[in-house]
């Protein structure tokens, strides 16, 4: 949450920095600000509430001397206001911050400092200024010793024009040298070009000047930004969310192909993940939100294919639940961003207990990747819309590959069986592609449900896991109250909320659950509720149910149907929010990377 961006180089800095900041806006969008050296060598600061676009309008006509730092905010400490927007200044120091300072109140008292803003950030400017004796690096190093919490900072000193200093702890920060100068960003995918970039080690101070960067009290890891990992524009689509849904056939294909050999075996050696990691009796999957739902879906695979017991945890509950990590277990952390604070905290807790860990991450070069060590990748490229879509189907695919590998290692699948499973997985690409053709039918459903106050999502077994994702997707972008219910649980309470006009969306893709799911559907219909059923092309008996709206997905019964269901629920949420005229890519109160616990 929150993004920082900066540039120090030849030519003007404001334009490239504000352009970069726009690409970083998915990290927060309640206010934005920029500080730069003007032609007289003075620091100027501009801040506004709302989107980066407002800041761009404000900066029009300003002249700068080639050095600027900027920030896009998701408020944690202090409301949404100009005074709380970054950059913050105290004395000779102006800075932008991504992270949370835990001891900001104690530091205010120690420094006897009266802040202008309500933020936890401003005190760092005062602290660094109080340590500043004409040596910026020493001042930052001394200040760090007194800071508790997480931070990525870009810092200007008023008597050092043409220079930016950075430092980080836990929060992400990347630096890139180009022909014209150096860029810094919370997310390397927002850099203006592909190629080499650096992630400074924690506590390392970087000095950035137009000619390059120098590291003090530490070093930096060199990484490569590939073209597929650079943030692209919407490419003609009205929203990133739609663009990302439409990309799913391709992102599933890329993700799956990375780990399937020519003879149809699963092989993770390209990522250095060895088979010995899977020599366990239990699996825990830990994640948040959509990534957690991928874990719920995958639990069914692991049990069925690999005969292994699985527990899926909400990351924010994992530590508080006091889960004891057994030596014969593997804990899998799933995260698109690789920086979700709750998932990271759970990872640290499992590692501290000596547990085996594996992460499934989409973004490159993340804190989670470095800390986990064993990482499998979803190859989706940057996901910009706040609502996760293509990462979800890719996470499910990687978890499925993991279940296949475990099954083979446990002797539950022979070579032919493994080949058949991977072939079924390769078909997910075309399932997703064919499912996109259901969009007109889904638009008609969205037309009907967009006026609802509540929508219920029903399913059993793996379809319940999908229902959980359906409800999350709808509520986060349409603001309609949506709730997922295990269909069998309906009669234990929630059915009291069903009355005429209340819509439910039901998923049915498994033969084993058919009759009981249809019974639940009948119960809802009998109470005047309307039901939209997503089911497979070969599911029998659904047409016998009166007043049921059926959407047949282009897939047969079985686990492969989850790719079709995922695309349907994402399109349904998208089309509903679109019908309501809402800001689909940037829903209120949310941010893409949740870096606060
Ligand atoms: C929902 C959504 C969130 C994320 C969750 C975890 O559409 O995007 O629920 O799935 O915040 O984020 P990552 O996967 O980055 O750890």
Looking at this protein, list some descriptive labels.
single chain, 597 residues, alpha/beta, six-stranded antiparallel beta sheet, 18 helices, 24 strands, globular, binds fructose -6-phosphate
Overview of the structural elements:
It is built from 18 helices and 24 strands. The chain is an alpha/beta fold. A six-stranded antiparallel sheet has the order 3-2-4-1-10-9, covered by helices on one side. A six-stranded antiparallel sheet has the order 5-6-7-8-12-13. Strand 9 and strand 10 (181-185) form a beta hairpin. The radius of gyration is 25 Å and the shape is globular. The model has no long low-confidence stretch (mean pLDDT 95). The structure holds fructose -6-phosphate. Residues 288-291, 335-337, 340, 343, 387-388, 472, 476, 594 line the site of fructose -6-phosphate.
Supply the number of helical segments.
18
Hetero groups in this structure are: fructose -6-phosphate
CA-based shape: globular
* Radius of gyration, whole Å: 25 Å
**What helical percentage do the residues reach?**
25-40%
- Spatial strand sequence of the major β-sheet: 3-2-4-1-10-9
Helix/strand-derived class? alpha/beta
* Count of distinct strands: 24
- Mean pLDDT, all residues: 95
Q: Major sheet, described briefly?
A: 6 strands, antiparallel
Strand content: 15-25%
Uncertain segments are none
Intertermini distance: 11 Å
């Amino acid at each position: 949450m929150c993004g920082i961006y900066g540039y120090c180089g030849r030519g003007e800095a404001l334009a490239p920095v504000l352009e970069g900041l726009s690409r970083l806006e998915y990290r927060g969008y309640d206010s934005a600000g920029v500080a730069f050296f003007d032609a007289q060598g003075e620091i100027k600061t501009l801040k506004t509430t709302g989107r980066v676009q407002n800041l761009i309008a404000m900066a029009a006509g300003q002249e700068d001397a080639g050095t600027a730092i900027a920030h896009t905010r998701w408020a944690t400490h202090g409301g949404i206001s100009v005074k709380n927007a970054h950059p913050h200044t105290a004395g000779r120091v102006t800075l932008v911050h991504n992270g949370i300072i835990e001891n900001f109140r104690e530091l205010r008292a120690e420094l006897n400092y009266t802040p202008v803003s309500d933020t936890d950030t401003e005190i760092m400017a005062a602290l660094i200024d109080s340590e500043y004796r004409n040596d910026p690096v020493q001042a930052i190093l001394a200040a760090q010793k007194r800071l508790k919490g997480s931070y990525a900072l870009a810092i200007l000193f008023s008597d050092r024009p043409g220079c930016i200093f950075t430092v980080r702890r836990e929060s992400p920060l990347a630096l890139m040298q180009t022909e014209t100068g150096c860029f810094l960003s919370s997310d390397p995918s927002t850099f203006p070009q592909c190629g080499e970039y650096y992630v400074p080690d924690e506590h390392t101070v970087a000095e950035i000047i137009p000619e390059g960067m120098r590291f003090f009290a530490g070093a930096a890891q060199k990484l490569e930004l590939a073209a597929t990992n650079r943030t692209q524009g919407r490419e003609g689509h009205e929203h990133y969310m739609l663009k990302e849904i439409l990309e799913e056939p391709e992102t599933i294909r890329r993700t799956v192909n990375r780990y399937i050999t020519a003879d149809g075996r699963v092989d993770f050696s390209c990522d250095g993940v060895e088979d010995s990691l899977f020599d366990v009796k239990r699996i825990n999957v830990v994640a948040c939100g959509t990534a957690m739902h991928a874990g719920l879906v995958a639990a069914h695979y692991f049990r069925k294919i690999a005969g292994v017991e699985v527990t899926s945890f909400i990351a924010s509950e994992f530590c508080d639940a006091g889960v004891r990590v057994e030596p014969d277990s593997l804990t899998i952390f799933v995260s698109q961003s690789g920086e979700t604070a709750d998932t990271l905290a759970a990872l640290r807790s499992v590692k501290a207990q000596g547990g085996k860990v594996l992460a499934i991450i989409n973004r490159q070069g993340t804190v989670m990747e470095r800390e986990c060590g064993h990482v499998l990748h979803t190859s989706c490229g940057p996901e910009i819309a706040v609502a996760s879509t293509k990462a979800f189907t890719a996470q499910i695919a990687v978890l499925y590959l993991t279940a296949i590998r475990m099954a083979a290692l446990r002797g539950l699948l022979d070579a032919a069986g493994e080949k058949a499973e991977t072939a079924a997985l390769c078909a997910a690409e075309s399932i997703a592609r064919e499912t996109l053709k259901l969009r007109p039918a889904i638009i008609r459903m969205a037309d009907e449900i967009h006026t609802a106050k509540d929508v219920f999502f029903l399913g059993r077994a793996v379809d319940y896991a999908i229902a959980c994702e359906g409800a999350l997707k709808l509520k986060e972008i349409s603001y309609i109250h949506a709730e997922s219910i295990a269909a069998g649980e309906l009669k234990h309470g929630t059915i009291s909320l069903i009355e005429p006009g209340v819509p439910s969306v039901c998923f049915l893709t498994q033969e084993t659950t058919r009759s009981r799911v249809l019974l639940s559907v009948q119960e809802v219909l009998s109470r005047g509720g309307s039901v939209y059923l997503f089911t497979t092309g070969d599911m029998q008996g659904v047409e016998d149910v009166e007043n049921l709206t059926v959407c047949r997905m282009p897939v047969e019964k079985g686990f492969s149907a989850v790719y079709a269901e995922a695309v349907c629920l994402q399109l349904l949420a998208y089309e509903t929010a679109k019908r309501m005229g809402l800001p689909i890519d940037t829903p209120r109160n949310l941010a893409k990377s949740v870096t606060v616990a």
